[in-house]
Amino acid sequence: MDALAVSIATGLVLPSVTPRHTFRMAFHFGLFQFLMPVVGWLGGRQVAEQVAPYDHWLALVLLNYVGGRMLWEARQAKAPEARTDPTRGLMLVTLSIATSIDALAVGFSMACLDVSIWGPAVLIGLVAGTLSALGIVFGSRLGPGAGRWAEFAGGCVLIAIGIRIVVEHLA
């Protein structure tokens, strides 16, 4: 659901969503959602105990960083060409990690239960990739002409997702 929400927010802030944008977002989100449980599973119980206390804080920092940048850019009066494309470079990797950090914990849990990760990881990756593709397209349909308010809303969504992750882990 995090990947879907971020994809919708990305569709809102891009001036126009191309098939290339859709592919990059869906591919990266699907790949990271597949890889994180596998990495968590391979890490096993020992690493899980070391990372679990702060994985939610890591997600909060990453999502707040990206969301904060979007809020900052929303208040700047500049041409759309000058805005950062969230489907490229370090921004895409940061979003991919931030939205899949919980999947790392799933992999840890499955290792502790001695359950195979391969089937669930493939399914998680395919669902995340599909929902991300649908989300960015849906967001682009909502966003044409939306301007800076859409970028502001997208930044708020990312920050809210980070806060929700922390609240769920602390509850």
3D structure, described in words:
By secondary structure, this protein is mostly helical. Helix content is 81%, strand content 0%. The longest helix has 33 residues. The mean pLDDT is 82.
Furnish the topology, listing elements before pairings.
Blueprint: H1 2-13, H2 19-51, H3 55-75, H4 89-112, H5 118-142, H6 148-170
Helix pairs in contact: 1-5, 1-6, 2-4, 2-5, 3-4, 3-6
Describe the structure using short key phrases.
mainly alpha; single chain; 81% helix
Which oligomeric form is depicted? single chain
Q: Main beta sheet, described? A: none
Structure annotation, total helices: 6
- The chain-level structural class is mainly alpha
Q: How do the helices and strands follow one another from N- to C-terminus?
A: HHHHHH
What average pLDDT do the residues reach? 82
Task: Please sum up the structure shown.
By secondary structure, the protein is mainly alpha-helical. The chain has helices at residues 2-13, 19-51, 55-75, 89-112, 118-142, 148-170.
